[in-house]
Amino acid sequence: MKQKIYRERQGTVSLQTPFFSPSATPLCEQPRPQFSRRGYVILNGEWDYAIRREGEALGQYDGKILVPFSPESTASGVGRVLLPGEVLYYRRSLTVDEVSAHYLLHFDAVDHEATLAVNGQEVGHHSGGYLPFSFDIAPYLTVGENEIMLLVRDATDVGDQPRGKQTLSPGGIWYTPQSGIWQTVWAEPLPEKYIPSVKITPDLDGHCVHFSFPVDGVCVTVADGKDRYFGIAEGGELTISLNNVHPWSPSDPYLYPVVFQLGKDRVESYFAMRKFSLMADKQGHKRLALNNEPIFHSGVLDQGYYPESLLTPPSDEAMIHDIMAVKGLGMNMLRKHIKVEPMRFYYHCDRLGMLVWQDIVSGGADYKPAVIQVLPFIGIHLKDSGKRAYRLFKRENEKEREAFICFAEETVAHLYNVPSLALYTLFNEGWGQFDSTALGARMMALDSTRTWDIVSGWHDQGKGSSPLKSLHVYYKPVKLQKGDDRCVVLSEFGGYSCPSAGHMFSPAKLFGYRMYKSAEELRTAVRALYDREVLPLVEQGLAAAVYTQLSDVEEEINGILTYDRRVNKLEGLDLSVSYPADL
Prior knowledge:
Layout: E1 41-42, E2 45-53, E3 63-67, E4 86-96, E5 102-107, E6 110-111, E7 113-118, E8 121-127, E9 133-136, E10 144-153, E11 180-181, E12 185-190, E13 199-203, E14 208-212, E15 219-223, E16 228-232, E17 237-241, E18 256-262, E19 265-271, E20 276-280, E21 286-290, E22 293-294, E23 297-302, H1 316-327, E24 333-336, H2 343-352, E25 355-359, H3 369-377, H4 387-392, H5 398-415, E26 421-428, H6 436-446, E27 451-456, E28 468-473, E29 487-494, E30 496-497, E31 514-515, H7 519-538, E32 542-548
Parallel strand pairs: 23-24, 23-32, 24-25, 25-26, 26-27, 28-29, 29-32, 30-31
Antiparallel strand pairs: 1-12, 2-3, 2-4, 4-10, 5-9, 5-12, 6-11, 7-8, 7-10, 13-14, 14-17, 15-16, 15-18, 18-19, 20-21, 21-22
Helix pairs in contact: 1-2
């Protein structure tokens, strides 16, 4: 493994959002509203922690860390980067009054490799920094006090694993790394027979909804206020027909409550009747459609970073604030960029009416900017299959390619039931891109209920490779090319920047695609950008526009909101985009 040392930043300013206040149990809301039970136990709060070199004796713990905030964050109370070759230890006690048949210990995200021990016995291992995992620790528990210990290793950008924009050399569009527990830890005591999961597939055209379980005999009850529906899943499958279907949309985010029952196990959930598809307008342009009607997706790139807590939302209110800030600009979509959020984020998008574009988190070895960035900028798009392509795109490691495919499939399975999730991005701007045509077909078959942007930005593989022609345009005017019959989306553009005194992470070092001196100048420029380049292209076939970006992130100050969320630079603008009635 190559050595890489974290580059400390100089002269940074400590910022904090209005949504963080240290508490004994932060982020204590129901962590999984789409599949919730009563009796869950939140295990966020103070844990013992220690950081040691690999092979060094643990000895005494270093102090306390506030879970679920990673040690690199100020919210954790640590402020220390975990380097490659180091091990992060966590420990806390868990008091159990009665040992149930099953006791699931859930970690909603730990970056990157985690090994769990209970009462000195190793329980299991998990690799992957962005998806939840759980262990049934009932066989290891005793009545009374129990010891939970977690060991974590994280190579950050030294390895090939999905890591997004985390780097040991932060600056510009690359950000402070984080490690360890960064989403909620919680537990569920369960009876002998319980429901492990459910797959919910609404069929708007068929006026029905299908439920699929890995166990047999689950009772399903749907109640929409007027009608009540009941059925039992035989062979794990059940389809329920609905009267007077109430479709979900951003303007009317109606959710159907549903209850699943198997013996003593009772789970509360919800679903929405909605359909995402592509359709052609009268001129033959492909459009994104919701419930068989064209809908323009006007939104922003959302990286979900916070100054005090990095990738971890500091509170439930912080997530709601960001969603409502976008709705306040007349927009209807968030592109969740290179990150998987806690399930409560998606729940808020579901109930508040916000379309979500979800990126699969990027990985791979360090790429060459001259190959990945410069060539497509001058119009050269490389093929991404075969040994030469693997070398150019830094995807030579076959094991890591297979791991990425597994991770992408697990991401889709994890988020399948989210009503607001409209579109997936498989590869972004060539990061770790490989075999995109074949892999894209595989992913679209895995989830055909969403639209797929297989290659977002560049290194497009041509017609037939992706349903979308996905453009990233900075520094130059947006223009649509003729002769491509795919649905055209502007999946990144803008990036206009404005310094905000007292609200910047590093006033001495600023990054942005185009700089303006004041918020007034910025608002005028953004309004002109939409009037000049977005709105005129709608009639020519443009189906979506994703402005960069929701908030400033560290040195990058091209956000609509400042990094600390205290200033909305575009306050008062209406950036909604709609189709003419006769489209």
